[in-house]
# Entry
Amino acid sequence: MRRNFINLKIGAILFLILIFYIGLLFISGLVTERQHYQQQVINDIANEQIRPQQIIAPYLKLPYQIKTTCTDEQNKTYDCQQTLFVALGAETTDWTAQFNVSDNTYKRNIYKAISYQNIMSGKGLFKAVKNEPQREYHWDQAEIIFPVQDARGLNAKPIFNIDGKAYKFDFSEQSQGPRGFDLMHITAEQYPELIQKLQQGFQFSLQFDLEGLSEFTFIPTSYEMTYQAKGNWGDIKYDGQSLPFKKSSKKQHFQADWKNIALGKRNLDSVAMCENSRCFYQLLNDYNDPSVIAQSAYETQNSSKNTISGISTQFLEPVNIYSQTDRAIKYGIMIIIITFGCFFLFEVLKNLKIHPVQYALVAMAQGVFFVLLLSISEYYAFALAYVVAAIACVGLITWYLYFVIKGFKAAILFGVLLSALYGMMYLLLQSSGKTFLFGSILSFILIACVMFITRHINWYQSEQQSI
# Structure
């Protein structure tokens, strides 16, 4: 029995580590549940109040007729005319977006949603439309179309200035569908004086105030486009089919600039195709559905006709407490292994026996650390929650070890060691992309320290003297 004492102790330690790991899985499930509650609040806000916004830059929708051949019920052919639509964008545009971002506008209990107020302005030039002999344009039915994802975010109907004269966008009768864009338009039927301007080309300017949730996507329709976005938020993610050629980000400020000559033409082709095939609204509905985009990409094999190309600015949480806590839990097993390893080495080096129950109590205290971290960080800053939880757990364990190992210096030494471990874990949480590098270096250093400390230990002799 004496010869197997160390083996039994190692077996007991490994069993406790397994139990601790199972406990961490339960805590990780708790984190996932709380994160689900937060996402549910955001979804409720999107459904009931405001959602992430997308806009398509204004374009001209012009119907025309072509001569074609039709077939009647008896399969007899005859000459007829078919009405189609052409979508025409501006030749050049210059857009700016000024975002005022906040996480205090929409919140329920402890859960918050990031929202923004976007003051957006643009100006540009529509060129004269060339007459084509095979097309009979219906200028009296022409429309300037302005699709907005969720018109609840507008505080007023946008004003479209054409050569210095203001025209107000109204809602189109075709605007429908809970997931579709709210379609706004200005019609030549309502303003007959527009027909000449639309035919000869015109300069325009547009400004509107749009409220949205967490993300804004701008979909250009001009052949040449510049776009600048800036605001009072530092944690930004840029996405879409074009990334900014210049960007900067500080604690409470960001700015990004785009310039593109391809997106507008691609979008106009998609809009024109779907206007004629009655799929325009479904195309817009599915723009943010990754599965639809992936399926479309697969079916068209890189064809640009079935997708709309946007420029996306997403406003992120400075610190996502749930992802940070979940990452910390992944390091929890490393912390307990190191702690138990130090206890075991202390037993071997000082010939002091620590009961498995005492191991288990220390492990439970370290498990409570993650529960404290999660609960406190939901009300206060993550860094403050981490410090409070770490001080509480390290202080409790240090106080307990004073009675276990019957020595003030040894207890303080373990307290310093645990403090260093929690400090290194916090640095790993903040290191983001370099976590794997720092983690592997730390593991190597720890193994090297253990090998150095135990280099003179005769383990067979320790086994014989253990009891």
About this structure: The first strand starts at residue 53 and ends at 56.
